[in-house]
């Protein structure tokens, strides 16, 4: 595999977001400059002369893209591309490539870790042992708090991409009935699937159709015994409505790996301590193996750019 002599200039705007991972596979194809993170007012200066930009969560809006005449390729270090103005890229002949299915095994695994925690109350069981409750028990076992088996219950998965299908496959292995919600699902069928659900797991992209798909109305369709998991984008869920449902006991529990603002600010304070709400710091995607696959995927996009038919200025 020949290494290009004149490598195109590339900028990674938020390389720190990938954590400790080897980026040398990217440098094989481009002259790469990495920034740990980038503020919005730093983007223009840092992207001058770049033919390639890599971004995880740094916004690339239309006005910025219009000011970058040499830009030919955007690689998102993520599955989603909502941080990029796709229409502006299309109009300017800028290709957009995402991370594909790199995170599927990682997200599926963490999704089920959270579902099982909500269902089996394992942290509470650890607390019981640490507090001496088991040691003081007059019988051999502590059976409270109660938990229910997943077998025979209903799993509704919103988003039928690689991750959603992977979550559904594990649900089937537990003996659950499955509803897969796609972009073609009618509002009536969505309502039916949510009303049937014992567990709802969100894995849909963020767009005009999915924004706020879980709101006061749709939360009202769920059983009080149901659990909600959001592993997709924070804006799929109306957080105020979710907190109200949990506080009122209209929903048994929820787990959020994503929030609207990341990292969160003071708005996180009201979520900490909400009963039966688990918060994790947008980490489901980030197994060591997933991050290596992501770098390999971006490297493949860069190789295709260098060796392929893209027009160069």
Description:
The model has no long low-confidence stretch (mean pLDDT 95). With 313 residues, the chain is an alpha/beta fold. It folds into two domains: 114 residues, 3-Layer(aba) Sandwich (Rossmann fold), CATH 3.40.50.720; 176 residues, Rossmann fold. It is built from eleven helices and eleven strands. The longest helix is centred in the C-terminal third of the chain and has 20 residues. A six-stranded parallel sheet has the order 7-6-8-9-10-11, sandwiched between helices.
Secondary-structure-derived class: alpha/beta
CATH fourth-tier homologous superfamily of the largest domain: NAD(P)-binding Rossmann-like Domain
Order of helices and strands: EHEHEHEHEHHEHEHEHEHEEH
Shape: elongated
* C-alpha end-to-end distance: 25 Å
How many β-strand runs? 11
- Which residues sit in consecutive blocks of at least 5 with pLDDT less than 50? none
User: Roughly what is the average pLDDT, rounded to an integer?
Assistant: 95
Name some characteristics of this structure.
alpha/beta; single chain; Rossmann fold; 11 strands; 313 residues; five-stranded parallel sheet
How would the blueprint of this fold be written?
Elements lengths: L8 E4 L11 H4 L3 E4 L8 H5 L4 E4 L6 H5 L6 E4 L9 H7 L2 E3 L6 H17 L1 H9 L23 E5 L3 H12 L3 E5 L5 H10 L2 E4 L13 H6 L5 E4 L8 H9 L5 E4 L20 E3 L8 H20 L6
Parallel strand pairs: 1-2, 1-3, 3-4, 4-5, 6-7, 6-8, 8-9, 9-10, 10-11
Helix pairs in contact: 5-7
